[in-house]
Amino acid sequence: MTGKLHERLGAAGAPxxxxxxxxxFFAGLRDGSLPGGALLHFARQDADFLLPAYGRAxxxxxxxxxxxxxxxxxxxxxxxTLEARQAMALGYDLMAGELAADGDDSWRTRPADPxxxxxxxxxxxxxxxSLAEGVGALLPCSWFYLSIADDxxxxxxxxxxxxxxxxALHPGEDxxxxxxxxxxxxxxxxxxxxxxxxxxxxRNFAIATRYEWSFVDAALRQLDWPIASMTS
Length: 232
What we know:
Layout: H1 5-21, H2 24-31, H3 36-64, H4 68-99, H5 114-127, H6 131-155, H7 163-169, H8 173-192, H9 195-221
């Protein structure tokens, strides 16, 4: 195979990235038409479930890394993710007052929805396997995030309802350097891992791209479990 691994993965994942970018959830963020309840659902699922699971999975991958530089990249990403979770949770809490008129307060105590539960479980399972499998599962979340944040910043309505939130969502230019380090790690794995490990990385990458779409689709629909908990 020719070309760097991250370039091959990027080409394979491009249709899913386009589908996520053009999903009605992000289209509604751009033009301000997104129901407030959908954004609050996203906030709860992202800050309280997805980001903590992502940070812990990065830490597990760091523990699997034999290369010092790889371990350093993954550890820094893990710490950055968990710190960002704290800041985002505060921002979402402040946002809730503005959006409260769109629905009740049940979003604050809602459990992980089925899509979030599946995605975060996937993070845990993949990062408990090999480094390659874990990295494949984790790559779309950070890679898609920056691309979507760039697109939102470029195309959103500056006078729209969510303009300030779109600006706050962007992780900043420092994040680009972090992602570059992650992509370099991916390319290193592409050169050093076995054919079986590479297949696992590519398989998990493909699965994770679909979970990215499912996560925002669940937020738009404010997805809940079809049956109540037996303890409720």
